[in-house]
Structures are given as C-alpha cells and as structure tokens.
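User: Second chain of the day. Same drill as before.
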Amino acid sequence: MKQTSNKSLSLCSIKINGKAISEYKIYSTADASPNRGVGNILVGACSRRLADNILNKFSGETVEVVTEMGDEKGAYIVLEPKSMDYTHYRTELRDGNLYVYGSYKSCYEFLDYFVKQGIKDVDITEGFEGDIDKPKLYTKEELWYVLQKAQNEPNRVIIGQESVGNIKTPYAGSIDLFRAGTEGYDPGIVGVDLGWAGICLYRDMRGEKKANDELKSQQFCEMVEYAEMGGFFTVGSHFHNPNREGYAHKGNNGGLRFEAMGFLGKDDAFRDLVTPGTEFNKNFQDELDACIEYLKYFKEIGLPVIYRPFHEMTQNTFWWAMVQKFPDGTKYYIEKECFVNLWKYVYKAFTEAGLDNLIWHFCPDFFAIDCLSGYPGDEYCDLVGSDWYTGGVGKLEIIEHCGLRTLENLMKVGKPIGIGEFGQWDVHESSLDYVKDFREIFNQGYQLSYAMVWTVNHSFLKLGKGKEAMDSGVFICREELVDWFAEARRELNK
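Assistant: Same format as last time:
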C-alpha cells in the first residue's frame, strides 16, 4: 500500500521478484530473543525501524511487522541482525523470501544500496551486498576536551541517565525514557552495563540467558548511532562474583540471586583474584575476556567510551567492596593495596588488549570510608567521581557526610568529576529538587563535568517536572553537546 507523504522519498517503488514490498511482512530473528525486556517492549525493534524507513524515507509503502513467521511461502523479509560489523549487509532470495544479514543498524538501512546507485524503481531479483555509510564519530581527544570544558563551565553540568538493566539497550533503557520525562530533551551521556545489571555478556544471570548476538549488535549499534548524534557513553561492569559461594540473596525463601553482590572474602581472597591459576582468578578472567572481546568493537569503529569499573567500592554492596560484609553481619576492611592491585590488574588486561579508546572513571560512594581510600593513582585513572543517593532534600551528603567531605577530596585530585549515579529515596517532590541540589553544590564552590540520574524512582520521568528542570539551564543536554564537539574539532585542529 502506497501512503501519501509530504516527505522527500528516495525511491519511487520497491518490489521483490516483481511483487510489491507491501505484500510482504517483516520478521526479525531478534524478535524471538529472551532478552527483549519487560513487557516485550523491544520486540520488533529492528523490524519496525525497517518498516518506518520504507514508509518515511525510501518509498512511502506500508509493510506489516510480525513477531513470528507463519507457513506462507514467499511472504517475508527476514532480518538477521547478528553482526558486529556496523556497516556491512548481505541479502539473498530463498524460497521467495528476502533474507537480510548484517548488524542491527545495517539490517534496517540496507535499501540505501539502491539510493546510492540512483535506482528509483527497485525490483529485487537476486541477492546483493554492500555497506551503509561509516559513522562520523568524535575522537577520544575531542571527548576529553568536552569533559574538561564541562568541568570548567560555571554552575552547569552535563546530564545523563543510566540504562534500565532489565531492558538492556540504550534507547529503550534510557534515551527514550529520558525524552519522555523531559518532553523531548536528550541526555548528554548514557550509561550501559556489560554484566549483571545490563547486557549480561558472560553467563546466565537472574534466570535469563546471557546476551545473544542480536542483543549485542543492537546495544553496540545504538551506542554508535547516538554517539554520531553527539551523545557519549559510560560503560560499567557489574561483574559476577568470582566467589560462587559468596552471593547475596534477597526475597522470600532465599529469593532472587544478585550475582554482583555478596562477599569475596578477606585480603587473601583479593590476592587470589589477581593470581593466575586460582579458582577466583579463572572465574573472574573468563568474564574479563568477554568484556574485552565486546569492547574491541568500539575500538575498531573508533568510538571512545568512559569505563567505570568497581563503582561504589567504598561501601559494602558489591563483592569488590573495600568493606566486606559477611553473612553473620560482621565487616572486614580490606587493605587498600588489595583493591588497588585489582584495579591495576583490569587496567593492564584491557590496555594490553589494545583498548586505548577507554577513559577510566574511578567512582566510589560518598559514605562508609574516605572516597579516595582505593584510588589507584593518576596513571591509572582519568576521571574521578562518586555515586550519590540522597535521603533528604537539602542534605547534600556528597558534600559532607559523617565527616567525609567527598566533593572536597575529589576536587583535590585535579581531574574532571563525574557523578556516576544519583537519585533520591522518596524525599524529592519533583525533578526541580535536583535543580536545587546542584545549584547548592555550585554555590558552595564545587564543579562537576557530568551527572547521571539512575532509573525507576530516581528518574525525571518518575519524579515529574523534568521539562521544567531542563529549562532551568543547569543541565547540559545532547543537543548542546553537538556544538561543543564542533568546537573541540576546531580547537584541536588549529
């Protein structure tokens, strides 16, 4: 069916073996993924984007999207978006169906093949392959320029949002939610996770299967696409506890197993963790290898990202904590050297793998012990920061909490400061309270590069008045960063 459109379309018509494309249905193998998220929110994401492109960009024809294939022969465009090669695609005709193999991005852009050749009336009668345009991305140096510029920007901070772990992909998990909560603004920075709280690269987590090829391609492609629009990313790793007996449990009858939590052990356990051949080391190294393999794709395409491992290490939530909490309620404070050696172990592994596109973010919490207790040294860290969840309006615990002056100590390091996560525990009336909090931080003489709101109850969408918060001028969004990156290119190329 041809729709009337005022938009400029690239093609006049599209046929497959002489039959109008509107007589076909679009199905993607990603639609059957068990990682599609809550309420199947992501089902058909790639398929829908192809259908939208055909309608609004290519030929103005409507093509139905389906989430399963029936018995009809010669009735489907079948997408297999499994590749980590962002630009390449390949198609073939088989049994009357058109099969498209590529990345999440190239599978819904593959019809650009005909646009580039100047063919207006398309009839696909044989397979073909090609590449979509390479993304135009900022460099690591340009990202660093922007981070430093933001740190020195008076009374303002780049605003972002962490992705929802059980949805996993940047758009559905963060960007679209931020837009909804702010009535159209885009976050300047987006957070994703490679482990338990996100894509689950390594193994089964919380009863779910680990990331399949379709999910890995989707997360990767969405990050590259958003970076091309001027947004940037922080990547975390809620690593699986190498002590398989040290998991924390919550809920009824032992309940849900949170595999990044619990205890590792005392100093000897941390030494075993970085000693090749030990059980803890093997368990940990397997997951590191999975992270390295995935992060190499960002290196290859030229996308720099902020890497934030072992966040909140100064309290006792996660197994890597400097304050180990055991099942009987006792606490043990590990030696600083033990945590520093863990940080250096990961830094060395990633660096030797060639991941020089990473910007390393040291991000403790504001309470329990001094925020710099586990600081690995300037050579192993580019950014500093803290996570901060407030228990009351105006408390500003990140400034002073039980004698711990977190921001003051972080400022002394002399590096840009990023708040990796912030939120409130049912004490803020609206997102405008965040504006008040940050204005008070600035009034007391502190400066920040970026801050990332956590999801669910902490988000602008949940709290409301997100647009008013963004209109305040305190927060810097993606749209403004486009100009900042352009400035970075000009200044660095002088």
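Residues 13-131 form a domain with the Chitobiase; domain 2 fold (CATH 3.30.379).

User: Great, on to the next one.
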